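Question thread 4412

I'm putting together a teaching handout and wanted feedback from people who do this every day. The idea is simple: show students a protein as raw sequence, then show them the structure tokens that encode its fold, then repeat with a second protein so they can compare. Below is the first pair exactly as I plan to print it.
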Amino acid sequence: MGIATNGQSNGEEYIAARSSLLRKSSIKGDLPDFVKENRTLNDFWQYIKHKFPSYQERRNFINEGFKPVLGKLEERTPIVETTIRIDDLYIRDIWQKALVRMNEDPEAAITSARTLLETVCKHIVDKMNVEYDDTIDLPKLYKLTATNLNLSPDQHTEKIFKQILNGCQSIIEGLGSMRNKLSDAHGKSQKRAKPSPRHAALAVNLAGSMCQFLLQTYDTKMATVG
């Protein structure tokens, strides 16, 4: 919008963003024609400057043009927040990949969800200087993380807390099984069930919620210790 309203603009960013949007088959049809038809920022400027004389008219036109695709994207927003508050950029990158892949590549999204959980657990135990075998599987890694965060069911006597924490453990085991059965992490059989976007959304949302819970618990524990 910057070039159309005398603001800042970047030709390379426009080309990269346009290319990325056009590759997404799920939203390509909803993109405004001016994005599809104008390959460069200069092309768009030549188009918009003659179509509308005022900045406000241009803003309104661009906003209206993007409403369909923005509406579709908002419908697909996952249940959990779209950003996990973490400092580690590598973890953030895995989270973003999981979100992007949910609809375009469900199998890859499920793999990313599992990877996200593993990475967050290792991030936490590393911060706490806890030793572990790097080949440890996810259920054992989660139990190690949970124990050090005082989240193991065995560490609590209240029935409701034990039920909730047992449920968390079951989620981790279920995500591991889902990844083994439905993701792209292993060789594929023709008879293998193929995951749909809703399966991927379930895996990503569960993984995201668990990671938020673990990271928030870690932050609280460290604040108490400090």
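The second pair follows. I'd like the answer to focus on this one:
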Amino acid sequence: MLLRILSEVHSRLIARWEQLAQIEITEEPSLEQLFTEHMVCMLTRECVNLLRAVLNISDSSSSPEEKKDEPTCFITSQIGQDLSVVDGVVALSFFCLTCRDATSAIRIIPACRALVDIVKNMLNNGQCEEGVAVFMLVTSIQSLQVHGSDEVALGPLLSLVFHVYYSLRKGCNSLLRVLQQVPQCTQETLQSFDSRIIAMIANNELVVEKVRREIIKKLLRPLIALSVGEQHKRTVHLRQLPPLAKRVKPLVDEDFTALALIFNSD
């Protein structure tokens, strides 16, 4: 039953967002266009609330990524037991991550992190295919292309990409091939990044959140959407100015005849 609900909600969300993308937005959108966009965003946010409830993500937690210790319902405890249900929850959650609604994307991030941990355990037990991990990484990177210009969403999304690669790299070698498609990323840079992540995993290194974001931001910079200020930033061209001429001190003919009056003995 849960799988059928997830599939139906997923298909309806896809249809709604595709319909919204086909609407031509003029300089001053009509009330009907604004209402349609608002309703699609509200539907997506309600779907996010459903997923957070299913995965037991609480708004009252001290951290947005913190989960309760004990599941509150039977569905939550059984999600990791059925591969088809996991696939459905992953597909719907990561789709909400790429919808053009920053509020939905930010609120679904804790659910996506929880799903990464579930898939990690399933990969270690041989119960899940690498395609799920690849889908998670690709969709997380796509979210940077959609919401990278939002300063509030950029940081958590960078952390999510790092969490996906860090958690699933050991059990999925295909993640490295995904990053090989990043433009302007040399093979040396990619190998250095991958070796660093593998060393962190082997040493169980505790990485500060700021460092995680900087590592991913440096690697995926060509894919991150520019902020509004950077989009309209005007290129400044500085021309070479001629050097300033040195001021030459004029030569003055010194006259010492007046000194003769002082020392004149007459």
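Top answer:
Good format. For the second protein you could add a caption like this: The chain has a mean pLDDT of 83. The first helix runs from residue 2 to 21.
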